[in-house]
């Protein structure tokens, strides 16, 4: 009740600290935390919203007391003389670092950061004022002032947070404006004293730029100070008189006396802040602050303190052991990475003893379609038959055309119009011209399609064997897959390598198990009961005795870590012998994978082959029909041309003049068989035709 209605003086701070300490003693003995058996409702009001907040958690009570302690310290600091570097940030810092931020919005991380930096900044202001009154060195004063700027910049960042802005409402803008004004003001003070230091060092160019920067920042502060109290305005005017006078004097002296170059401000070293203020520490177990523990008879506080010290000893032991484990693990990991040895796949021999699932899937699919290969072969045979028929028809057409052309040429020679074997062939008839054009077109299409047909047959021949294999017994499929042929020595090398890799894994597992056992032992190791009955002077001895329980597991871990060097040496030797086997296995694995991929590709190509085969059949069936029609047309045209040639020849014979008288024939001259059969002599024929009986005529012209 006293803590809730605390007086606003240092006695009130003492009351809050005592209550906070007693709450700490209480919660270490009685389960009053969130969802614990003795938890009770804790009710407080948020400072900004005025809303009532309730939590069944004793830590919420502690957090609210800490917040009020910080708030009360800040109020007392505002009333006190500005000579102390102690500040109210300690309570807010302890609250931020040791308690959840979800209790209420005024305890959010951003609000607490704002409070902490506002308190630190104001405390640093007090120290700055004191250092200026004590005439400290200019550089030290500049650094102290720069630290004020740093604290207020952190506070400004917290104010600019959207969560903070929505919580604070209107005062957020006022606070932000005031904090920004202070940032510029104390930056001006820092550069004023940097200018004074440059003056002491007779760096007159630097002095000018520092004073000029101080003047610029002070002008910015004055702009932001509108609406501030008269005391603030008066301080700003006084500072303007000081800085303005310093700047004008420095500039005049440099222009007329020193003539030093004025450097750019960003070329000079920035002023690093010097944090010299300290937050009032919060120690919930300090009896000088909390008073005597009113729950001491439940469990002596000394036992808790000693237990905490013992926990630190356990933590130190764990850190030492873990440092050794992590160092060894790092070496082991790097070594195994360089070896690239996976114990699970170091030989892959198991892989070759069965058909892979993807291939089994293809075999199963073909087993329910037993006519797959037969259908493909038949389809390709039909395609080949149609292809051959088309090719035969086109060849016959071409032969007819060539024969007709030859007969036409012979006729022309017979009639004396074209010298034998000279000139271009005689023009064909209109019907044959059309046949020739269509034939050329079909031949061109056929040649293009012939290439596709050839490629299709190649693809079929490539895949048909694989499809037959996949359709057959599984034993044949398994036999078709490559497998390594290892000698007894190779197998011994593999077994040795796998044995050592198993040792490596065993070493890892044992190490992890021992580490886990150690952690669990430390976690469960609570000697509070023993500490209650132990005299303080005997605590160290008790710790030593209790820590001996970890000696055995430490020995096991040391042995495990020491064995690593020998295991890795053996692994190195085994890996050297494994190199040749590894290469051979890698080659076989590559072939095995390639074979599997090829078989899968053949299965997947089946549907495409069938589709293209059907397309080829459709194409050639259509072309066959067209070629057959063209063949009939060619035959008819050739017959017409032949009849026409006979008519021409008959007309030519009728046009010849009657035979002239001839001299008596030589007695020994014999008639050619052709003339004798016709009852004629050679002289009885016209001169142009008479010469034709001497050479052997083609069969088709002999009847003429």
TrEMBL record:
UniProt feature, compositional bias: Low complexity: 675-690
Chain segments annotated as coiled-coil in the UniProt record: 387-417, 497-524
Cited CDD domains: V_HD-PTP_like (cd09234)
GO annotation terms (biological process): early endosome to late endosome transport; endocytic recycling; protein transport to vacuole involved in ubiquitin-dependent protein catabolic process via the multivesicular body sorting pathway
BRO1 domain segment(s): 1-332
Major site of localization recorded for this protein: cytoplasm
Name of the protein in its database record: PTN23 phosphatase
Gene name, Swiss-Prot/TrEMBL: Ptpn23
């Amino acid at each position: 009740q006293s803590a809730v209605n605390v007086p606003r003086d240092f006695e009130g701070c003492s009351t809050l600290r005592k209550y906070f300490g007693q709450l700490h003693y209480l919660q270490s003995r009685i389960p009053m935390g969130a969802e614990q058996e003795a938890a009770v409702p804790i009710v407080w009001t948020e400072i900004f919203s005025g809303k009532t907040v309730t939590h069944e958690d004793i830590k919420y009570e502690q957090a609210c007391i800490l917040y009020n302690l910080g708030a009360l310290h800040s109020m007392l600091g505002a009333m006190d003389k500005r000579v102390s570097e102690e500040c109210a940030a300690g309570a807010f810092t302890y609250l931020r670092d040791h308690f959840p931020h979800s209790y209420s919005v005024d305890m959010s991380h951003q609000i607490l950061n704002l409070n902490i930096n506002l308190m630190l900044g104001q405390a640093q202001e007090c120290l700055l004022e004191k250092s200026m009154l004590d005439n400290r060195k200019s550089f030290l004063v500049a650094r102290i002032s720069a630290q004020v700027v740093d604290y207020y910049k952190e506070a400004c960042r917290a104010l600019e947070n959207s969560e903070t802005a929505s919580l604070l409402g209107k005062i957020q803008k006022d606070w932000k404006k005031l904090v920004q004004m202070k940032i510029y003001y104390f930056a001006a003070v820092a550069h004023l004293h940097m200018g004074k230091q440059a003056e002491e060092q007779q760096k007159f160019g630097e002095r000018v730029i520092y004073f000029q920067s101080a003047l610029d920042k002070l002008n910015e502060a004055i702009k932001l100070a509108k609406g501030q109290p008269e005391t603030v305005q008066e301080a700003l005017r006084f500072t303007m008189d000081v800085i303005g006078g310093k700047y004008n004097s420095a500039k005049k002296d440099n222009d007329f006396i020193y003539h030093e170059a004025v450097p750019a401000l960003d070329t000079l070293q920035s002023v690093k802040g010097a944090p010299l203020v300290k937050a009032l520490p919060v120690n919930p177990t300090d009896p000088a602050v909390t008073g005597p523990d009113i729950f001491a008879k439940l469990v002596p506080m000394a036992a808790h303190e000693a237990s905490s010290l013992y926990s630190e000893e356990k933590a130190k032991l764990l850190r030492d052991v873990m440092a050794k484990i992590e160092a060894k693990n790092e070496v082991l990991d790097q070594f195994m990475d360089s070896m690239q040895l996976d114990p699970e796949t170091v030989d892959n021999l198991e892989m070759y003893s069965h058909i892979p699932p993807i291939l089994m899937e293809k075999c199963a699919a073909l087993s329910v379609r037993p006519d797959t290969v037969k259908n493909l072969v038949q389809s390709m045979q039909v395609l080949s038959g149609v292809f051959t028929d088309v090719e035969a028809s086109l060849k016959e057409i071409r032969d007819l055309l060539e024969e007709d052309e030859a007969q036409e040429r012979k006729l022309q020679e017979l009639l004396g119009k074209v010298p034998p074997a000279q000139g271009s062939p005689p023009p064909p008839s209109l019907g044959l011209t059309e046949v020739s054009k269509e034939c050329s077109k079909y031949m061109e299409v056929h040649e293009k399609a012939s290439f596709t047909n050839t490629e299709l047959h190649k693809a079929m021949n490539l895949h048909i064997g694989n499809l037959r294999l996949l359709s057959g017994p599984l034993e044949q499929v398994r036999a078709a897959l490559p497998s390594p042929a290892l000698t007894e020595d190779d197998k011994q090398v593999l077994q040795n390598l796998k044995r050592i890799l198993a040792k490596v894994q065993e070493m890892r597992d044992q190490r992890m198990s021992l580490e886990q056992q150690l952690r669990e032992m430390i976690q469960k190791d609570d000697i509070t009961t023993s500490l209650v009955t132990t005299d303080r002077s005997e605590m160290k001895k008790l710790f030593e005795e209790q820590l001996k329980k970890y000696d055995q597991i430490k020995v096991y871990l040391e042995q495990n870590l020491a064995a690593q060097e020998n295991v890795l040496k053996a692994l190195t030797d085994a890996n050297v012998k494994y190199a040749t086997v590894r290469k051979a296995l890698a080659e076989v694995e590559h072939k095995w994978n390639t074979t599997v991929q090829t078989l899968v590709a053949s299965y997947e190509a089946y549907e495409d082959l069938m589709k293209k085969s059907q397309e080829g059949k459709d194409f050639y069936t259509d072309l066959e029909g067209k070629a057959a029609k063209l063949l009939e047309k060619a035959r008819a045209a050739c017959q017409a041309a032949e009849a026409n040639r006979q008519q021409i020849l008959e007309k030519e014979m009728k046009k010849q003049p009657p035979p002239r008288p001839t001299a008596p024939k030589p007695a020994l001259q014999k008639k050619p068989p052709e003339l004798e059969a016709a009852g004629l002599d050679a002289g009885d024929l016209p001169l142009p035709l008479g010469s034709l009986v001497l050479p052997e005529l083609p069969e088709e012209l002999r009847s003429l």
